Amino acid sequence: MHLERGDVRDFLHIDADLLIANLHFQIIDQITDQESFYSKNFYILSGLLGHEGHLIEEKLKRRLHLLNRLQENFWFSYLFKALRAS
Fold first, then answer.
1. DSSP per-residue codes, 2-56
2. Confidence (pTM)
3. Strand partners, 21
4. What own/partner pairs with CB < 8 Å and gap ≥ 24 does 50-54 have?
5. Contacts for 56-61: CB closer than 8 Å, 24+ residues apart
6. Nearest-5° angle of CA 62, CA 65, CA 71?
7. Would you write out the chain's pLDDT as a tens digit for each of its 86 residues?
8. Are the CB atoms for 48 and 73 separated by under 8 Å?
């Protein structure tokens, strides 16, 4: 396992099977606009309020398959899988 800590926008180009991001909505919205975001097989995205999570979920459904959604109070976390991943 290789972990990177820093600004996610600086690390999207790194080959990885899994991307884990507990970030504010604005950053998740920005990185999901970059093609390099979609090079991973699995994604755990968290730190999203309900209405923000639904916006991201709607945005990603064209490119990723939602495997699971977890809610704790007003916070949401998502597990996505690339459509091409087996």
1. ----S-GGGTTTS--SEEEEE--HHHHHHHTTSGGGGGSSEEEEEEEEHHHHHHH
2. 0.89
3. 45
4. 50/74, 50/76, 52/25, 52/76, 53/78
5. 56/25, 56/28, 56/29, 56/32, 59/29, 59/32, 60/32
6. 110
7. 777 788 888 989 999 999 999 999 999 999 999 999 999 999 999 999 989 999 999 999 999 999 999 999 999 999 999 998 65
8. no
How far are the Cα atoms of 28, 40, 61, 65, 75 from residue 72, in angstroms, in the given order? 19, 26, 22, 21, 5
Q: Which two tokens stand for residue 86?
A: 């087996």
Beta bridge partners of 41: none
| Token pair 């099977």 in the structure block, residue | 17
